[in-house]
Specification:
Shape: elongated
Number of domains: 4
Helix content: 40-55%
Number of strands: 20
Structural class: alpha+beta
Distance between the termini: 66 Å
CATH architecture of the largest domain: 3-Layer(aba) Sandwich
CATH superfamily of the largest domain: Vaccinia Virus protein VP39
CATH topology of the largest domain: Rossmann fold
Number of helices: 19
CATH class of the largest domain: Alpha Beta
Strand order of the largest sheet: 6-2-1-7-8-10-9
Radius of gyration: 47 Å
């Protein structure tokens, strides 16, 4: 199985086990975020990571927190929120006068900062009482952990640093856990889980806020989300997007209201109206009285029709003739009840009997087309004949013949044909010019398509860069926390080093500390005073290779004893020459350097030109 197939298998596993469908997310972003978790748990392939998830349920939370980058803040992109407060909210309140309710949807709200931001702006613009009475803010996300934080409405003082002066004190109250959004206003903000791709949208929304969420999805998923947004918004609603979201390819759903601040308005889409059709079943009784009732009913139904119409029953008898048909074909009341075949209209201007039989057999209308007709000398007409079967209780009961007067349409068609022939002549003369223009147009069209493709690629790259920027911001926050901890540890280490240097300098004897390879690790000031070597000249070198006037070979056995398995201390005196060239008897003591576990990992060499005082002796 390829890596791409393993990734698809992993995504399907997440969908089936945890209900998270990431198939609409951009593959490049998903791969980066999942790879980050894989590196942190030391897993190399997607298949291995899926196995790891099966045996480590707690890993799902860390994975979702990594994929769903909850980078948010109060008044994030401050100038955009200023525009919302100064321009858009006043416009919205003007279009929705009191007491009309105001419904806001904060989609992909993460931990709730954006929802509470718009709540503060609306409360400032309307007053708290009107806000509590009229406003409902619906905040949704797919991350249940983030929604839990949002529902608690409790934030640290660092989180509130971006809130303008005065608003934090006005809308937040201190609590043992931090600063909590005021409960009486919090009731107007409703949090819930909603998958923008899969779940149904919230309806009748006046202001929809979705900032920097679309850029994580594929173009197909973006189209579906925007279709949901179009459905969710009222006709005069506003869509407020992030700075990287342009909606270049979705002009059928939204039109720019203020493109600079990414505010759009809904394009109203009109659906097709469904139409109902009625079929009346006329009973086929016997006798003249039944025939008379049928004729009266049919005549009343078609008399007011705007076109000439005849109605015949299934036996072929005429049961209705409207006024226009009587005038057009010279028919009268005496023709009612007669067989259609006895009338001239049955074969002039077209054969109606065959058409009626065909309509009854196929149970669908038959279009005979257009025919010339002269009801009187000098009155030339063109009529269009249509035969429509009538049925009741599943059986054919007759047919309606419609004669539409299309004389004017036919005349216009003739004029159109004549004009068309004239234009064809002109087209032949202009053919060369048209071909040149078509060639130029094709070149321009090709260039335009290339520009549109480049624009879409730039838009996609911009969204990708914005995604990576938020990832880098998240990583930077982690690095800043690690850096602060490192600085704290560095300060503590510096303090311990100063403390150790003070101790070693105060002993009054030369102190040299070597590791298990006899490499110098510590060389105190008294050692420099004795032998003339500075610490930087001695550190990192084998002690037996130092250039000092000391019989270093005498140290070899002592160091071997101290560094051996038993770690034996030794003490001796040797003749040496100090840095000033004075000969003296040097007292030397070598002790093992042990860890808490008892293992020896170095040795301490003490040197002095006198007996070491008891108070500095090392046991």
């Amino acid at each position: 199985m390829t890596s791409a197939e393993d990734l698809q298998s992993l995504l399907e596993y997440l969908k089936q086990t945890r209900g998270f469908d990431f198939t609409g997310y951009k593959k490049s972003s998903l791969e980066r975020r999942i790879k980050k978790r894989m590196d942190q748990v030391n897993v190399e392939t997607y298949a291995e990571y899926q196995d790891f998830l099966e045996v480590t349920p707690d890993e799902f939370t860390d994975l979702f927190n990594t994929i769903l980058i909850n980078v948010t803040a109060f008044f994030r992109d401050e100038r955009a929120w200023e525009y919302l407060a100064e321009e858009l909210i006043p416009k919205l309140l003007e279009e929705l006068p009191d007491p009309q309710p105001i419904r806001v949807w904060s989609a992909a709200c993460a931990s709730g900062e954006e929802a509470y931001t718009v709540a503060m702006l609306l409360a400032e613009a309307m007053g708290e009482e009107d806000f509590k009475r009229r406003v409902k803010i619906y905040a949704t996300d797919v991350d249940e952990e983030a929604l839990t934080i949002a529902r608690h409405a409790t934030y640290s003082r660092e989180d509130l640093e971006a809130v303008p002066d005065g608003l934090a004190e006005k809308y937040f109250e201190p609590s043992p856990l931090g600063q909590v959004f005021r409960p009486e206003l919090r009731r107007s903000v409703i949090f819930g889980r909603n998958d923008l791709v899969q779940d149904a949208p919230i309806s009748r929304i006046d202001l929809l806020i979705s900032r920097n969420a679309l850029m994580y999805f594929t173009p197909e998923a973006q189209g579906r989300i925007l279709s949901h947004f179009n459905f969710a918004l009222n006709h005069n609603g506003y869509l407020f997007l992030g700075k990287s979201e342009m909606l270049v390819t979705h002009t059928d759903l939204f039109t720019p209201y203020d493109l600079k601040w990414r505010v759009f308005r809904k394009v109203v889409r009109s659906g097709l109206r469904e139409r109902l059709s009625f079929i009346t079943d006329v009973g086929a009784g016997e006798g003249d009285q039944a025939v008379h009732r049928q004729a009266q009913l049919a005549a009343a139904a078609i008399e007011i029709a705007p076109e000439a119409m005849l109605v015949v029953d299934r036996a072929g008898f005429v049961v209705a003739i409207n006024q226009r048909a009587r005038g057009l074909f010279g028919l009268g009341p005496a023709d009612l009840g007669r067989p259609l075949q006895d009338l001239d209209v049955s074969y002039q201007p077209a054969d109606l009997r065959s058409a009626i039989a065909q309509a009854a057999a196929d149970r669908k209308r038959v279009q005979l087309g257009r025919y010339p007709w002269s009801p009187r000398p000098g009155d030339e007409r063109t009529i269009e004949i249509t035969v429509m079967p009538m049925s009741g209780n599943g059986a054919a009961v007759g047919a309606t013949i419609r004669f539409a007067d299309v004389t004017e349409h036919a005349r216009l068609d003739e004029e159109h044909e004549r004009s068309k022939r004239q234009l064809e002549t002109a087209y032949e003369e202009l053919q060369s010019t048209v071909e040149e223009l078509e060639t130029t147009n094709e070149e321009l069209h090709s260039t335009n398509e290339e520009l549109e493709t480049t624009n879409e690629e730039l838009q996609s790259s911009n969204e990708e860069l914005e995604t990576m920027n938020e990832e880098l911001q998240s990583t930077n926050d982690e690095l800043e926390s690690m850096n602060e901890e490192q600085q704290t540890r560095g300060t503590e280490l510096d303090r311990l080093n100063l403390f150790l240097e003070g101790i070693l300098g105060s002993l009054g004897v030369g102190v040299v500390v070597v590791d298990e390879d006899q490499i110098v690790q510590v060389w105190n000031a008294s050692s420099t005073e004795l032998w003339g070597l500075r610490p930087e000249e001695a550190d990192g070198r084998p002690i037996l290779s130092l250039d000092i006037n000391f019989p270093l070979e005498d140290l070899r056995e002592a160091l071997r004893s101290a560094l051996g398995p038993d770690g034996q201390a030794t003490e001796t005196t040797v003749e040496a020459v100090n840095r000033r060239g004075r000969s003296f008897t040097c007292w030397v003591r070598v002790l093992p350097l042990r860890a808490k576990s008892g293992d020896t990992y170095g040795a301490i060499v003490l040197m002095a030109d006198r007996e070491i005082p008891t108070e500095v002796a090392v046991p």
